[in-house]
């Protein structure tokens, strides 16, 4: 596996990865966001294991308060990325869960804490991606993620796992494409850690459960699928790519004569 990764690294274009032997600053804020979100995810999902709808709603309110608080220290581009991530992920949640049945929450709904939770998860991926730790050790972290997720995927299709996971192996391949062809590989790497954390806790606590057979591909999938981070990478890619477009659109809108006159009045 390690030899395969070394050969893969030599052949692939790593121009979007951080420069080697460069000095990157460590910002306490980045690590605080990550640690706070990892902690909140664990507490929230374990609390929801036997929670009522009222408690789910209370967790949702807390999630929005935490997310807004964390965003106060971010620039407008990151804030817009989070807004887009929340909207896109929430639409995706309603389509994939209640509508398609790819996975099911305890009450068959999308819990109130899920939308702000997606915002916090995305912000954590951004914070870790720009942190000195990830920028300095990008290639080592990449190798670690490929080995761990690769072995997990192989286990899922080996016949040894209780629940087959062909979907997970397929998603792992998609994740590799994001990682080596996407323009934000550090965000995708960071997303693997926070999303794997929340998926393992959420499924272990019974907060949600993935269907044994994917309703779209009709292939067996794990609980959770090994390459599930690829779905979150899609959210990240949409947020990163969409934020500049939306901000430019707002700038053009505000430059129209109608809004200029409104400002003068």
- Radius of gyration over all CA atoms, rounded: 20 Å
The proportion of strand residues reads under 5%
Strand order of the largest sheet: 1-2
Number of strands: 2
Account of the protein in words:
The mean pLDDT is 92. The chain has 265 residues and is mostly helical. The chain has helices at 2-11, 28-48, 53-71, 76-99, 114-129, 132-136, 138-157, 166-181, 185-204, 229-254, 257-264; strands spanning 103-105, 208-210. Helix content is 70%, strand content 2%. It has a two-stranded antiparallel sheet with strand order 1-2. It is built from eleven helices and two strands; from the N terminus they run ααααβαααααβαα.
Characteristics of this structure?
11 helices, 265 residues, 70% helix, single chain, mainly alpha, two-stranded antiparallel sheet
List the helices and strands and how they pair.
Layout: H1 2-11, H2 28-48, H3 53-71, H4 76-99, E1 103-105, H5 114-129, H6 132-136, H7 138-157, H8 166-181, H9 185-204, E2 208-210, H10 229-254, H11 257-264
Antiparallel strand pairs: 1-2
